[in-house]
Amino acid sequence: MAKSPKISASHEPGGLIVHISGLLPSLSPAEQRVARLVVADPADAARRTITDLATAAETSEATVIRFCRSVGMDGYPQLRIRLAAEAARRIEPPDARVVGGDIPPGADLAQIIATIAFNDARAVEETAEQLDPAVCEQVVEAIGAAGRIDVYGAGASGFVASDFQQKLHRIGRTAFYFPDVHTALTSAALLGRGDVAVGISHTGTTSDVIEVLEQARARGATTVALTNFPRSPITEVADHVLTTAARETTYRSGAMASRLAQLTVVDCLFVGVAARNRAKARKALEATAEAVQSHRVGAGRRRA
Amino acid sequence: MAKSPKISASHEPGGLIVHISGLLPSLSPAEQRVARLVVADPADAARRTITDLATAAETSEATVIRFCRSVGMDGYPQLRIRLAAEAARRIEPPDARVVGGDIPPGADLAQIIATIAFNDARAVEETAEQLDPAVCEQVVEAIGAAGRIDVYGAGASGFVASDFQQKLHRIGRTAFYFPDVHTALTSAALLGRGDVAVGISHTGTTSDVIEVLEQARARGATTVALTNFPRSPITEVADHVLTTAARETTYRSGAMASRLAQLTVVDCLFVGVAARNRAKARKALEATAEAVQSHRVGAGRRRA
DNA sequence: CCACGGATGAAACTTACTTTCATGAGGCGT
DNA sequence: ACGCCTCATGAAAGTAAGTTTCATCCGTGG
């Protein structure tokens, strides 16, 4: 026997709350009291137990269950979960993060964090979107087949260069990084056909890096530039150009997002090279991981 | 009777899932099975009853309850609701990009790029969400007022440490980084009250870093740990603990997302410290930018 | 080898949820 | 007005879910 109407809430795209308030007038008085509580504060309702909610609505648990059925739920637990989900979704939008711009003077730490994270994440995503897989492929090929790889970078880009060098080294590729221009120039002079030189410069105008890359190219090495500006000087001495997409305009922020964007590109190249020779790379990585094992404490689980 | 440590989840505004995956290694095997199910599909877990979930994780209800407590919940119902809310918030992945996991063997470069960027961006966002502004504030205060700041880190975290040191230095704070443990220990021994020591370790188990931080603490310095795992050994020697939220599970990927997450935290601290004394920081940044000006070519517009 | 401490599941127990059922308040035809 | 029906409602019984307790097991270190 068909008991109550039980409106199909199985599909209520507009939202459960909307759905409930829509059929509020069709509910019995006691159920309406429950409904009003629920609509007024879904998140709070989700936290309450059925007995609690019943008491708050000055009715019995049975009525609450009836209410659940009336709005199309199987039972109270299901309602609770739907309410929690609903409530979570509707507090989302207060997204007042400062986009792109500078950090406002009076910002508190929470704002600063939100702004930085947003810009950082954005730089990473946008960089990936505009990265040309074909160019990456060529670079990966070149590095994978290279006799030797030199990575150049100065200042903040130097860290990235160093990171790339270390990564390549870990998978068994012969790679170098030089914190010093003179040494770098010396090394570049010794490169030859089949070798690869990677120059990293956010602005693309770092003369030291350009100079070294030029030297490498003159010696017959394949040159790769990683920069944020596709028409900057460094691209003139590069066979392959990879670009990042950090919209860092102000110097004051220091190179923040750009580093992350560069690192993302480095990661892509690294994984690309590693994928090119899976077995070897894997073995190398495992060996290196094992090597530092003795410098770790509490191997398995951590603490008690 | 204080049973388990019960990390305060009262503050994990960013994400319960993130919080859980951070705690994962510190859980017992059976609890880890539960955690993995929950992290893999929060929405689904929220729908299950405790008995159901226990069965799925091949364990008992008791363990599921223990898991709830371990991650800071009162009990299963609360966890359920939080999960439902969490799941609702992350409606995003209409994408088939591989989340968290490894790069599939047959992947082409475009796929690799998409996957890496997604995970990197995610790590940055999630890290920011779970960062505790209050703790950051304390760290910023300490660093801003410190006589001297030592930054420690080994391996991949060493780059981050070095980056942080350089950033602090650029805004006129006296900061050091040591690639060598011995030197680091020596330096730590010379720290005192009012100085700050920052230890960076993704796993939180790097004995060298822990050792140095311990030394610094013994000398009266304020110690700060930056790690992905809130209950790892390094947190025991730190006055302030900052956590990242990279879900890097496999060693094979190398520390990719974790670096970016760490750098994001570093950026936040950096800006925080800089904001503390705007005028001075700005002047310092401009001075340093000017210093490298002569090493740039094509200053204004780029090319023709 | 034993003592110890932590991890674990079975079972007892408690609480929450669901069903059943009796009551009583209206509505309505006679 | 009376009886009869319908429906809303909560008390109480019943069932399922969640929680606690406790004995056992296993690995660790003395």
Automatic annotation (TrEMBL), chains A, B:
GO terms for molecular function: carbohydrate derivative binding; DNA binding; DNA-binding transcription factor activity. Keywords: DNA-binding, Transcription, Transcription regulation. InterPro entries: Homeodomain-like_sf (IPR009057), HTH_RpiR (IPR000281), RpiR-like (IPR047640), RpiR-like_SIS (IPR035472), SIS_dom (IPR001347), SIS_dom_sf (IPR046348), WH-like_DNA-bd_sf (IPR036388). CDD domains: SIS_RpiR. Residues 139-279 form the SIS domain. It comes from the Bacteria. Residues 14-90 form the HTH rpiR-type domain. GO terms for biological process: carbohydrate derivative metabolic process. PANTHER family: GLUCOKINASE, HTH-TYPE TRANSCRIPTIONAL REGULATOR HEXR-RELATED. This is Transcriptional regulator, RpiR family.
